[in-house]
Amino acid sequence: MSTVLFTHSYFYRLDAKQWKFKQPYPPLGSLQAAAAAREAGFDVRFFDVALRHEPGEVDDVLKEYRPDYFVIYDDGFNYLTKMCLTLMREAAIKMAQLAKKARAKVIICSSDSSDHYDKYLDAGVDFVVRGEGEESVNELLQQLASQGDFREIPGIVFRLGQKTIVTRQRPVLRDLDSLPLPAWDLVDLEPYRSIWMKNHGYFSLNAATTRGCPYKCNWCAKPIYGNRYNSRSPEHVVNELEFLLQKFQPDHFWMCDDIFGLKPGWLQQFSKLVREKGLKFRYKIQSRVDLLLEENAIEALASSGADTVWVGAESGSQKILDAMEKGTTTEEIRKATQILKQHQIKVGFFLQFGYLGETKSDIQSTLEMVLDQMPDEIGISISYPLPGTKFYETVKGQLSEKQNWTDSDDLAMMYRGTFSPAYYRLLHRYIHSRYRIRRGWEQIKKRKIKLRAFASMLFHSPVSLIQGWKLNRLEHAAG
Question: Between the CA of residue 91 and those of 85, 86, 105, 360, 406, what are the distances in Å?
């Protein structure tokens, strides 16, 4: 029986911003692929690098297991892997090279390798699996183990001599209930639990109910699961959550779908089953404001334990939302936020600055939206040109040698925006300062002031004045 060592390439410690948050999740997609390979009859081992210090640590594991095949399979459910961070690419390549020295065949499946397969093949990787990978990896492993013909396997890239062979795209997997549950037994969850409990007082695990997204926001790439939407049944999902609750006792789940509960009637059935089984947990999701306004959606979320909903607000300017082809309105953002708050569900806004054509007025509209609606959390990024998107095609002629962020706090402007990169870096801090000041005042008005929020308000009040002055200087310099 062939031995297959699975790993992935997202090291939390190499991403300073995410490591500071202390909210690590195990590599769900990687464990799913490992489970599928094990079900196919392979002797599967797993090396989880998420909490490790550096990629060289894989060397001892390679020496211990002496695998025939080394599979770097990134967690496609974790949005952090979609950004193709340079540090993680370097980590993947280093691990691949160590595996080659250990005489293992190296296979990689990730967003970055799907987009830039030549970089990995040049570094010595034997096969790149593009897109959704469980079936392609298993078929490739079977052909390699039997010394069969792998040249027509859909969804792979490899070299024959100096020629790069890209096979046809593999059809998407539609029956998600047919997949085995992730191989949770192959990963040690106690270090994750310890970090969560020490820093947040509860333990959160991740689960996925869907694959893909059918919407066509022109800046959003879908290198793994594509521009489609397939869903597991509510029954299958609830059974998995029940298993995880009994086995690992998490307090909370992150439903890491691009969009949770899009299929008509899915949310209502999910909520019904959770209540019938008497399951008690809290969870957070990502959704769209227009979907949340559909009949009983927010009520179903509230009754099943949802405590946080992150929405892609992106901008307070309808002009920018339309340019992004977002398909939502600022009025829908306002209304969905109000209804979520009425049901005691916290709201998170994803915000994006620097999109093509954005003006000072558009930025001001976004700030006003944040201060008016006061979501419970905000996440700010700079528009990031991902390969395969309409946005990327528009700006690719402006891209320099730097086309990836080093880490998720890089926020470099990689094309010509309205203002300078320094402006957008400072804008990120300014929006956060204004938000924290308003949060402090809101608590004072409700007579629920917390010492930490009050101290933050006092700190950021003079800081925001200085930041605003510097922004004006940078704006005039750009003019």
Answer: 10, 9, 17, 39, 12
How far, in Å, CA of 130 to CA of 154, rounded? 9
Which amino acid belongs to residue 74? D
pLDDT band at 374 (very low <50, low <70, confident <90, very high): very high
Distance, in Å, from the CA atom of 37 to the CA atom of 107, rounded to the nearest integer, reads 13
Q: What SS3 class is residue 107?
A: strand
Q: Compute the distance between CA of residue 367 and CA of residue 423 in angstroms, rounded to an integer.
A: 15
Measured CA to CA in angstroms, residue 110 lies from 130, 134, 237 at distances of 7, 12, 25
What's the CATH fold of domain 3-166? Rossmann fold (3.40.50)
Phi and psi angles of residue 180, each rounded to the nearest 5 degrees, phi first: -70, 160
Phi and psi at residue 281, in whole multiples of 5°?
-160, 160
Task: List the one residue out of 224, 227, 237, 247 whose CA is nearest residue 8.
Answer: 224
Residue 254: CB atoms within 10 A of its CB come to 22
The owner of tokens 């093949």 is: 121
Nearest CA-CA partner of 220 in 314, 105, 339, 106: 314
pTM reported for the whole predicted model: 0.93
Give dist(CA 241, CA 220) in Å, integer. 29
The length of the chain in residues reads 479
Q: Are 35 and 4 in contact (CB under 8 A)?
A: no
Residues 6+ positions from 64 with CB-CB distance below 8 Å: none
- DSSP letter string over 337-403? HHHHHHTT-EEEEEEEE--TT--HHHHHHHHHHHHHH--SEEEEEE----TTSHHHHHHGGG--S--
Taking the C-alpha atoms of residue 44 and residue 36, their distance in angstroms, rounded to an integer, is 10
Q: Which residues pair with 231 in a beta bridge?
A: 210
Count CB-CB contacts under 10 A for residue 54.
Answer: 12
| pLDDT (tens digit per residue) in 244-276 | 999 999 999 999 999 999 999 999 999 999 999
**What residue ranges do the domains of the chain occupy?**
3-166, 202-384
SS3 state at 142: helix
- Comparing 170-179, 258-267, 300-309, 414-423, the range with the smallest average pLDDT is 414-423
Rounded Cα–Cα distance for residues 169 and 464 (Å): 50
State the SS3 of 202-235: CCEEEECCEECCCCCCCCCCCCCCCCCCEECCHH
Fold of 202-384: pyruvate-formate lyase- activating enzyme (3.80.30)
Rounded to 10 degrees, what is the CA torsion of 186, 188, 193, 195?
-120
394: Cβ–Cβ under 8 A, 6 or more apart, which residues? 356
